[in-house]
From TrEMBL:
This is Imidazolonepropionase. The lineage of its organism: Bacteria, Bacillati, Actinomycetota, Actinomycetes, Micrococcales. It is an enzyme of class 3 (hydrolase). The gene is hutI. It comes from Microbacterium arthrosphaerae. Binds 1 zinc or iron ion per subunit. Residues 76-401 form the Amidohydrolase-related domain. Fe(3+) binds at residues 84, 86, 241, 315. Pathway: Amino-acid degradation; L-histidine degradation into L-glutamate; N-formimidoyl-L-glutamate from L-histidine: step 3/3.
């Protein structure tokens, strides 16, 4: 694919080199791209992924720009859209992971340890680490990703995390309301005022989204509503961390405020599922967290069967899920959460795009950005069938090969 290539070129590449178009992930072209319309696929996921069966020629002057690549019968899918990461931080918490594997429960309080090591890092250290993570994502087929702040929790630190994140993605989320930092432990109202005031003003210019960790031990539903409202008033769009560690009000709050996505959704009751099903809020499931914390996996089958739009994301962070691998999320979703391979790949591509309200990525179709992944496998099923094997062979971002 040449430098001027777009999704039409990708469509041609796919047409010429993929034997089974059902493996491609194309939405039917007879209706708007899947990211623009709500998709209620059946259990087999076919109508989420099947192409329209029509060949499209690349004509006129475009032809000179086109390099046809023989994929040798390998599967081609859209680049992954990882709609939830926390990639700007210092240090790690391998000791906590090790302790969890012998029975110590996950505690969100560990976030404060990463806050300390993040504050101690220089901009250059954080930038170098972030760029290394971006390279890691790309190598695993992720072509669009979101990055949150949330390990600064002071005005200058949150501002620099947002600024550094904005160097690598337009999808920056201000998460000053991750936890109340230790120095405000006895003054949480003051901290919330800071988040909604000076910290928000410092971070909003670098950010698209406002997020809050609505959970016991973090922020209550009332506090979360107040913080999200402040973000919306500053021009940011809301998303929520909810129902991760236990039942709670996060999901219903997200629906009530019209959040693009509510993330985790591990502990849901029937009212939560019904609220999501009647809304435009995406349920973003983060199975790397359950893998790494030994909590029960969220029930994707229940959500999909209720008509909820489901996305998969990595939640890459040093505490609850230190992996950036979308293929691993797909494998876990299929093995542990009741998703078909087709549904899981959809959720990791088009679903992520919906969670970020993006209509230009996540689907291979004319007019979309040519974010394309060539797998070293004949079908997308192999992403779940061969867990842990590096099956991503070639990645194109906007038509350009990324090594
Ligand atoms: O999404 N839930 C809150 N935040 C992160 C965990 C952060 C950490 O443990 O450092 C999450 O899982
Ligand atoms: Fe998170």
């Amino acid at each position: 694919v040449g430098p001027a290539a777009d999704a039409a070129t990708a469509a041609r590449l796919i047409r010429e080199s993929t034997p089974d178009r059902r493996e491609v992930g194309n939405p039917p072209a007879s209706r708007p791209p899947a990211v623009l319309s709500r998709n209620r696929a059946g259990r087999d996921g076919e109508d989420r992924t099947e192409g329209d069966g029509e060949d499209r020629a690349v004509d006129g002057e475009d032809r000179a720009e086109v390099e046809v690549i023989d994929a040798g019968g390998r599967a081609v899918i859209p680049g992954f859209v990882d709609s939830h990461t926390h990639l700007v931080f210092g240090g790690d918490r391998a000791d906590e992971f090790e302790a969890r594997m012998t029975g110590t429960p996950y505690a969100a309080g560990g976030i404060r340890r990463t806050v300390a090591s993040t504050r101690a890092a220089t901009d250059d250290e954080l930038r170098a680490r972030l760029r290394a993570f971006v390279a890691e994502l790309r190598a695993q087929g992720t072509t669009t990703f979101e990055v949150k702040t949330g390990y600064g929790l002071a005005v200058a630190d949150e501002e620099r995390l947002a600024r550094l994140a904005a160097e690598v993605t337009p999808e920056v989320t201000f998460l000053g309301a991750h936890v109340v930092p230790a120095e405000y432990a006895e003054r949480r109202d003051e901290y919330i005022d800071l988040v909604c005031g000076e910290m928000l003003r410092a971070c909003a210019p670098h950010s698209r989204w406002i997020d809050v960790f609505c959970e016991r031990g973090a922020f209550t539903a009332d506090e979360s509503r107040h913080i999200l409202a402040a973000g919306v008033a500053a021009g940011l769009e809301p998303r929520v961390h909810g129902n991760q560690l236990g039942p709670g009000e996060g999901v219903r709050l997200a629906v009530a405020v019209g959040a693009a996505s509510v993330d985790h959704c591990t502990y849901l009751d029937d009212a939560d599922v019904a609220a999501l099903a009647g809304s435009a809020t995406v349920a973003t499931l983060l199975p790397g967290v359950e893998f790494s914390t030994r909590q029960p996996y969220p029930d994707a089958r229940r959500l999909i069967d209720a008509g909820v739009t489901v996305a998969l994301a990595s939640d890459c962070n040093p505490g609850s899920s230190f992996t950036s691998s979308m293929p691993l999320m797909i494998a876990l979703a299929v093995r542990e959460m009741g998703m078909t391979p087709a549904e899981a790949v959809w959720a990791a591509t088009a679903g992520g795009a919906r969670a970020l309200r993006r209509d230009d990525v996540g689907v291979l179709a004319p007019g979309m950005r040519a974010d394309v992944v060539l797998l070293d496998a004949p079908t997308r099923v192999h992403l779940a069938y061969r867990p842990g094997v590096p099956l991503v062979r070639t990645v194109w971002v906007a038509g350009q090969i990324r090594e």
